[in-house]
Amino acid sequence: MIHGGDLISFKDLYDGKIIDYSSNINPLGYPKVLNKVLEDALKDADKYPDIKYRNLKKSISKYLGCSEEEVVVGNGAVEIIDVFIMMFKRIITFNPCFIEYEKRAKIHNKEVLEFFLDENFNIDINLLYENIKEGDCLILGNPNNPTGKRINEDILKNIVRLIENRNAFLILDEAFYEFCPFFYDSIKLFKESKNVAIIRAATKFFALPGIRLGYAFTNSNTARKYDETVLPWSVNVFADVAGSIIFDNISYLQNTKEYINEQRQYLLKELKNVSCLKVFDTDCNFILIKLLKGNEDDLFCFMIKRGILIRKASSFKGLDKTYIRIAVKDFENNSYLIKCFKEYEEFSL
After folding, report:
1. How far is residue 324's CA from residue 118's CA, in Å, rounded to a whole number?
2. Cβ of 172: how many Cβ atoms within 10 Å?
3. What is the pLDDT of residue 141?
4. Pairing relation of β-strands 136-141 and 169-173?
5. Which end of the chain is flanked by fewer CB atoms within 10 Å, N or C?
6. If we measure between CA atoms, which residue out of 102, 146, 106, 155 comes closest to residue 284?
7. Crossing angle for the helix pair 220-229 and 77-86, nearest 10 degrees?
8. 93 bridge partner residues
9. Residue whose C-alpha is closest to residue 205's, from 254, 263, 269, 267
């Protein structure tokens, strides 16, 4: 399992609706204001989207607090990552991390320099001082996938300072940014930097993985280079329209943040009482777990028989078959998940 959300591959393993804990989508669903808007957008399906995405970039720039010239858009965050990777000589990653950082780099025949997070899943900045050089592109998840940890603000400032001094570049993948409570705003912190791109997406928080809308902040010169590299019309008319209105939905933003925080704390508390699990604290809407008994295959089979799809985590470099990742969902499903974990605890004794 390289990515979560692949329900079709496992649909024959359970006679009923599978609860997908392998992908990390807002359990409250997409903003319902989109129902009529997307229906109306059908009338424009026979036309090309605005190739410059003017209305979309205007909406995003207002949401991010930057100028329209500092916004780039793409077919999900992964396309933006892919395009940025094309623009640099060498890619640097810290494992475990989102597998597409390395995969896309190798597809584009880029050299990849891989480091590993320490035992507490933190970045050893000394590795960067010793290795990073001009033309490098460092990609960091913030919060990181699959660990769920955001980067300490002071550490991040030091990393950006080093990046600027070495004339390298930093991509911050913040696809889960809105799920984090009391999170510093990296765009405000690094608004004047010419060496940073901060990527976000409508996929996770706004529950629109099928719409495929990613967006990013970077300096205007880099944004121009991006627009020269990316395929034309990479954002479809439905994503264009959706992205022009979803960021103004203040109540949706607040309700989701409050609900996810409540359910995150509930899951962490209850799962930490299951003796066969080591549960790692998280800053977002998914939780990394180490199995103290059994492995990911054992638990996967146990859970799928109960209609739950978990994310095996051994596909992340640096994690073995004793790790899994689960999403934070709604209370009803989370309660059922906890019940199943307690059954697994009894089963594994």
Report:
1. 18
2. 24
3. 98
4. parallel
5. C
6. 146
7. 100
8. 114
9. 254
pLDDT tens-digit profile of 274-324? 999 999 999 999 999 999 999 999 999 999 999 999 999 999 999 999 999
Cβ-contact 12, 328 below 8 angstroms? no
Determine phi and psi for 56, rounding to 5 degrees.
-65, -45
Quote the tokens at residue 257: 């943040």
Which residue is listed with tokens 């810290």?
94
Inter-residue contact 49 to 343 (CB < 8 Å): no
pLDDT of 23 above 80: yes
- The tokens of 189 are what? 């912190």
Element (H, E) at 336: helix 331-347
Those residues whose C-beta lies under 8 Å from the C-beta of residue 120, and which sit 6 or more positions away, are none
| Contact (Cβ atoms closer than 8 angstroms) between residue 81 and residue 105 | no
- Domain range summary for the chain, segments of one domain joined by +: 8-22+250-347, 35-244
Length of the chain equals 349
Cα 130 from chain centroid (whole Å): 28
Helices 331-347 and 296-304, axial angle in degrees (round to 10) = 120
Q: What six digits make up the tokens of 136? A: 């490098």
Instruction: State the CB neighbour count (10 A cutoff) for residue 24.
Output: 29
pLDDT, mean over the chain: 95
Q: In the CATH hierarchy, which fold is given to the domain comprising 8-22+250-347?
A: Aspartate Aminotransferase, domain 1 (3.90.1150)
Which class does domain 35-244 fall in? alpha beta
Coil vs helix vs strand at 41? helix
Continuous segment of H or E residues that includes residue 243? helix 237-243
Q: What is the DSSP letter of 132?
A: -
Those residues with Cβ within 8 angstroms of residue 30's Cβ, 6 or more apart along the chain or in another chain? 206, 207, 208
